[in-house]
Amino acid sequence: MDRSNLSVPKHSSAPSSVDISITGKCNLKCRYCFYSDEMAALNDLSTDQWKSNIKKLGDARIMRITLTGGEPFTRPDIFELIDTIIENKMRYSVLTNGTLINEKTIEAFKVGKRRLRLDSVQISIDGSCAKVHNKSRPESFDRAVAGLRLLKKEGFPVTVRATISKHNIHDLEAMTAFLLEDIGLPSMTNNEASPIGTGCTYKEEVALDHKEILATGLRLEKLQQKYPGRITAQAGPLAKLRMYKEMEDARKNGETTNRWKMGYLSSCGGVFNKLGILHDGSIVPCSMLHDLTMGNMLSDDLLERWENSEVIQEVRDRCVVPMSEIPECSNCEWVEFCNGGCPGIVQQIQKTIMAPSWRGCYRNFLKANNIESVYDASSPEEG
Asked: How far apart are CA 267 and CA 344, in angstroms?
């Protein structure tokens, strides 16, 4: 196919946000961690190196930083790094397992402008009780919930991400009630355990199949009705059902979505406005694409890499690759409406980004569930 009339969307002059894995160290061994191999293989940068890098991000006009890991609170210098973010006029968020948050942490957040510049703290909770949560995140429920309750009590902007797996699909309603009613969170989000990283080792134990994705997605839709505006998802069963319905609407009614360019490998828009930095300083297009290195903060100019890296440009270029040119997709009736799925998952499983994700394939989903449309699926009450 001639692609001369297709243009890749213009990326921003600088990424608006950057995800920083400030450490590869973690006090847990989660059963689905996608970053487990890199944690062991790469070395953490020193305090001074991170402070220098953060200043470079400020100079590059980055607006927001998300601190992640590993577990960011395993670094004793985390608040020194937060102060450097603030000194360089940026805002920040923290992704954490919550187990190391205590009264001392709360008091540290109250120093200077640390709390004023904080956008959110996101904690991972995977069940309504220790029996469920600890299957995925061993021996951590009580400590994680204690940290969550403490943040909530002190009025912090806190949310929870629940990773849906075989371990907790039976617990969705109880887990949601626990978080939104018992804890009293304003909202929560969820995604899905994938067979990558540690999840590859335990894929039979954690990863959902197509039938489980459908049943789980339908139950989550019911929970959305019960808790309007309080349950969101960027990935996983709930997000997949939304995407499949948009594909159906486009095919039947011509109602195209503005969330991706239909019929192209266009699912990923993050590479046009954000980046990831690993705990050794490596610059990557996304934390899910952690083996596609664009350079290193210690030796390379971030904006030059953002503008000229062939690595990130290849990921951006996916959006003009027609699904019809992919052999396994060319004869699919959904080829004009699909987006190919997350390149991070494709890269980890299939070792290429120029391919669709079999885990997100709508044709496979319909066949596995023996239905012709996601709209034909029975609700949980109907069986």
From this structure: 11
